[in-house]
Amino acid sequence: MDSIRIQGRIALQGKVRIQGSKNASLPILAAALLIGESSVIRNCPRISDVHSMVSLLKSLGCSVHWQEKGLVIDSSQVRKGEMPEDAVTGMRSSLCLLGALIGRCGEVVMEHPGGCVIGARPIDLHLSALEQMGVEFAENDGRLKAEARRLHGAEICLPIPSVGATENIILAGVMAHGDTVLKGAALEPEIWALCRYLRCCGAYIEGEGSSRLVIHGGRKLHGCDFTVPSDRIVAGTYLFGCIGAGGCVFLERAPREEMDAVIRAAELMGGRMYTSPEGIYVQAPARPAPLRLVTAPYPGFPTDLQSVVLAVETLGRGCSRIEETVFENRFRVVEELKKMGAQICQQDAHTVKIQGVEGLTGAHVQARELRGGAALVAAGLMAEGETIVDGCQYIYRGYENIGRDFRELGARVVSV
What we know:
- By secondary structure, the protein is an alpha+beta fold.
- It is 30% helix and 26% strand.
- The protein has helices spanning 22-31, 48-59, 85-88, 97-105, 123-131, 163-173, 189-200, 232-245, 260-268, 306-313, 334-338, 370-382, 402-408, and strands at 3-7, 12-17, 38-42, 63-67, 70-74, 107-111, 136-140, 143-147, 155-157, 179-183, 204-206, 212-216, 225-227, 247-252, 272-276, 279-283, 292-294, 319-323, 343-348, 351-355, 364-366, 386-390, 412-415.
- It has a 4-stranded mixed beta sheet with strand order 21-22-1-23. A 4-stranded mixed beta sheet has the order 2-14-16-15. It has a 4-stranded mixed beta sheet with strand order 4-5-3-13, with helices on one face.
- Helix 6 (163-173) links the parallel strand 9 (155-157) and strand 10 (179-183).
- Helix 8 packs parallel to helix 10.
């Protein structure tokens, strides 16, 4: 299914259950390499990035099976740290296997998942941190080779709170000799989930939820039964989809404790939020209020949701401004929204202004990346007439079935 067809202008009603977290699942699956026994990972989302990670784990010697109770992973037969080129290229999440494979096998040989290998941002943060733990890196014919004769703890200070680098340091640190003290660690909830899984397997990690982590290495790890938390980005997508399309929805199992910045933004846009242990109830305004939004690392507003907010504010009651401070090239959705009648001015690489219009018109648009693709689906829900979103392979990297979920809320959405 390469496209999604949407008939817009239908207010959303009902409830939808939020899937397991993509950004938590991938490092947890990587961590399963360290165990040497079986683990059961429940609530793992059936998305293309997870399927790609499962293929990578199998190529390394893991036994991986989907069962009704969850994903069962047995890594007892892993003996090598070489990942096949066709399983890695273009899959950024394979980078989180770096720390795990060094910890398990003492060496890694891998293709870089897109772009330059050594020295290019942001992989240099991963490499410099692991070098402090005794890892030696070399590049040969575009392949990265990492080797650690004796992985040891270190005191590491990250200059920026990189989620991926934090995960790799944790994964290597639990297998290293001695303690690893990490300062400047990322605070994202996916880091908490990884630490909880590893502790469930017998690791000793202190400082979860803070920028200073202490990983006590060298402990024997064992298999466990672990449940992946719900996906805060998927929940936010559906929350803002409701703000834009109108209506009232209940987001079952939405991780409300991780979504303070998202809920605040939605309230500023005129939405009414009611939280409970079971999820989040959303009541949309007649039309979104204008918003001044700046993305930031957690606990700030997530960069992965600024595209959908941008789409929703095209129908805002005034002029909105969005500043992207985390990643470059995050406004690729702008030209596609303009095809639907949006009035957006990109001031520079990091800032856009949106002048709200009375209505959008359905159009044939192209998803160029994961979160921008989800934003185009949300725009289609808001637009008059039919919208066709092509390039949906990007969307399926992070959403199990975005069309099904919006249909649960009464939208007219089909995959074609």
